[in-house]
Amino acid sequence: MALPDPLRSSDGSVIATADQWRAERRPQLVHHFEEWVYGPRPSAPRVLETRTVLQPSVIMDGAATLREIEITTSRPDASFRLLIITPRGISEPVPAFLAANFFGNHRVLDNPGIALRQIPVGADQAPPHPAERGAEAAAWDVARTISAGYGFATFCMSEVVPDDPDLSVPALADFATDGQPTGAISAWAWAFSRSLDALEQIPGIDAGRVIAVGHSRLGKAALWATAMDERIAAVIPSQSGCGGAAPSRTARQLAVIGANGRPTAETVAEITRRFPHWFIPAYAGVADRVDDLPVDQHELVALCVPRPVLLPNAVDDLWADPAGQFAMLRAADPVYRLVAGGGLETYRMPMVGEQSLGRLGYSLRAGGHSMIADDWTIWREFAGRWLHLRAEPAPEDPGAEVGV
Q: At 140, which CATH number?
């Protein structure tokens, strides 16, 4: 089935210049995604207050400064904590990765100063335990990111809107814009922007070089946030799948049927049945006739132009549709070539273990649906190429004298 043409206006006319894209086509696509998929992104009150809840402290044997702030906005009960780590000993402001996490800041880094927060995820939830500190630190690879000259910041999605339909639906009422409902993905995307508001005030962070990162459902939120907030410098939506960087149409029409009788790629029908709170009802309403959607996800990628976009995938994560995601990059490439002068480096989908790190980038590794430390090596290389910073710390000269 043919995808919608991102360079054809709603009236059928061809978008032929970058100015036409910005003035005409971009607003049309934003409207379609708000009306059919995510709902309106909540209105953007600037941050009213940032309260320091963990005073800056030196960590990582003197290599970094850790702080945690609480962000409060004008929306009722819309406050959440942002953990921020910056490298020390660097004279210029540094670019930073801004990531959403699933289960709390205390799980990202093992540090006793980070509060053990009760994260709302369900009715039968046990209180957090000190053993949870740093439980996911290996996957986040923060130390090597700091060593490479980047800052790092993260917030927990469930402090914004819980990822539970019973809890999220009442919370989402506070995010309605002009009475129009929105979905959890839009609320999480809103939190990326409010976090960026706060990072603009943090010493040592170059807020003009912030890379949004999210895995799975949070990859969807990072991508939507970047499409809407043009301050975000680049985006890395890891294995974001249906409703993220994977197509709505192709997943339904062309997905291979597995041994269990289910498509190997997630469909709109499946995702809206299991996670109705992520989107607005209109998306579920077209689950069996996705050709009626006026947009598809290549146009979400295109909304990020000219910012670099990297789509990381894993070969065994068929549910996230790795091939479909590369197809979305190919379909967004004409917009990037028109507006930014370049997009994909190759139209051949990379093999396992390969990556293509053009302005529209793609990587495919072994394994399944997860975020691992080795992912960050590629992500830093991609960010370093486009934000003009080295990807990894320089290796020590084995012939250099020590202590002289």
A: 3.40.50.1820
369 part of the active site: yes
Q: Would 30 be classed as within a structural domain?
A: yes
Residue 57 bridge partners (DSSP): 66
pLDDT tens digits for range 328-370? 999 999 999 999 999 999 999 999 999 999 999 999 999 999 9
The predicted-structure confidence for 161-196, as pLDDT tens digits, reads as follows 889 887 777 777 777 777 787 899 999 999 999 999
Locus of tokens 């945690």: 68
Contact (CB, 8 A) for 106 and 130: no
pLDDT score recorded for residue 388? 81
Do both 147 and 227 map to the same domain? yes
pLDDT digits (tens, 9 = 90+) for 227-286: 999 999 999 999 999 999 999 986 444 445 455 555 578 999 999 999 999 999 999 999
Active-site residue, selected from the candidate residues 216, 240, 248, 356: 216
Assess whether 156 and 51 both reside in one domain: yes
Q: What is the mean pLDDT of residues 117-137?
A: 79
- Single residue among 189, 224, 239 that ends a domain in this structure: 239
Backbone angles phi, psi at 328, to 5 degrees: -65, -35
> How high is the pLDDT of residue 48?
54
- 151 is a domain residue: yes
- In the residue annotation, 216 being an active-site residue is answered as yes
Helix, strand, coil percent values for the chain (each to nearest 5): 35, 20, 40
Are both 363 and 271 inside the same structural domain? yes
Integer Cα distance of 205 and 93 in angstroms: 5
Which pLDDT belongs to residue 123? 53
The whole-chain average pLDDT of the chain stands at 88
Give, to the nearest 10 degrees, the angle between helix 184-199 and helix 165-172.
Answer: 60
Number of domains in the chain: 2
Domain that includes residue 338, residue range: 8-38+240-370
Regarding whether 365 and 251 lie in a shared domain, the answer is: yes
Q: What is the 3-state secondary structure (H, E, C) of 261-310?
A: CCECCCCHHHHHHHCHHHCCHHHHHCCCCHHHCCCCHHHHHHCCCCCCEE
Marked catalytic residue, from 31, 147, 369, 370: 369
